[in-house]
Amino acid sequence: MANLNDSVRAALDACGASGYEGPHATRTPLTGEELIGTVEHTANDVDQAIAKAQAAFREWRNIPAPVRGNVVKRWGELLTEHKRDLAVLVQAEAGKSMSEAMGEVQEMIDICDFALGQSRMLWGKTMPSERPGHRLMETWHPLGVVGIISAFNFPVAVYSWNTALALVCGDTVVWKPSEICKLSAIGADALLARAVKDCDAPADIHQLILADRAAGEQLVNDPRVALVSATGSTRMGREVGPKVAARFGRFLLELGGNNAAIVAPSADLDLALRGVVFAAAGTAGQRCTTMRRLLVHESIADQFVDKLVAAYKTLTIGDPRDESVLVGPLVNKASFDKMQNSIAAAQEQGGTLLVGGKRVLEDQFADAYYVEPAIVKMPSQTDIVREETFAPILYVMTYTDLDDAIEVHNEVPQGLSSAIFTSDQAESEKFLSASGSDCGIANVNIGTSGAEIGGAFGGEKETGGGRESGSDSWQAYMRRATNTINYSGELPLAQGVKFL
Ligand code: NAD
């Protein structure tokens, strides 16, 4: 296999990145070896980046939105050209299979297409005025500087959802990527810099901050940052939300999930099996939408769970630079330790480990953490099942009545993604109804992960309530003004009020 840092350097060169090398190195989850080090920005650099983004905003907001759209169009073209280069960087830092890393970059390309179209559709409504000779309407305006804080597991895609929309909406962006995914951030930002240059747009509309969480806290506390869009753990969101609210800033939170699927007796079990295995074991359980809980009808439970266990035994685990590998590494030792602790807690709480959970390839990679995805059968939804453990553990429970299953499904603090496998239309409608799944994403006959960019993405409760990507998510990046225009020559007051 080619030397990893040689591949990483070649990918960064191809993206047009320069001047990034420095003493701050992280370890790749693939082998545990150190990656190329980067520079580290200081608090003063963060302050300067916000100031530059704020100054650029004054110019950028006046450029017509469809012209702003040209920048994301060009970015999408460059991402298409350098899809594999960026995927190499994503793989090196997040440990994904090449197919999933390429999929992540494809998501960036898709949101560029979407945002380009949206640049001609930043539409407001008109409403009938109650007064004669008056027009009532709303207009949408750019918000200002958007601070983006992103997580390690989708190091570039979630950033691009925010950036592509923010830029067409007339905002400027300051991005603090995950501290363990700086190289993919440098690659993605270098491609955006090229797009900005090719379109003659103001150079400072995008800023990249390479630093740890203190820089994120600085963005959170700075009143010049109009919107903080933060993706990561619920712990992080719990700290970020109140701080931004205290200064009357806006926030958009995309936090942890604890996603479940119900498998009903009428389900196509082969389809359900493939859907469950991809959602639960894919990306080594490190997606916010990873399936972590499975509720199977008792009449099919034994048969379905046996098939699931058999399918888990066929999963290929290893260095995902080998393209036949399906399950790559956990991101680090802390993640592996958490997985072990959660399995032990589940067993203490009455669970039975059916398959997996063991570290593998330890003799080959002392500092990389490859693990067999685990299935634990639980007698009920205990405390550990209510927590998000960011690793491949699937807790399996059985049910007899769909209403009870939905009750258990919703009885966790998180509310991101959900699914039902059924061929019974009444069951599927019930799951999607007001008394069904309480999640931001509710699917039928498809797993919990792998959303398309066209829909709004996000979840309820401790997942944070934010919506990003498609549908009307663009509105989060703009401010709305209601305009009343009087062309009557009179001054009638609303609600019939008389004065003077
Ligand atoms: P994390 O919370 O450790 O870190 C996320 C980011 O927040 C990092 O850039 C970090 O530096 C920053 N940060 C941490 N504390 C902060 C603070 N107090 N103030 C400002 N910034 C702070 O998360 P992670 O381990 O990188 O990612 C995994 C988590 O992210 C999981 O819980 C996963 O479910 C969640 N996630 C959610 C979504 C979603 O869309 N809902 C998407 C991806 C990941």
From TrEMBL:
It comes from the Bacteria. The keyword S-adenosyl-L-methionine does not apply. Gene3D superfamilies: Aldehyde Dehydrogenase, Chain A, domain 1, Aldehyde Dehydrogenase, Chain A, domain 2. InterPro entries: Ald_DH/histidinol_DH, Ald_DH_C, Ald_DH_CS_GLU, Ald_DH_N, Aldehyde_DH_dom, ALDH7A1-like. One of its GO terms (molecular function) is aldehyde dehydrogenase (NAD+) activity. Keywords: NAD, Oxidoreductase. Belongs to the aldehyde dehydrogenase family. This is aldehyde dehydrogenase (NAD(+)).
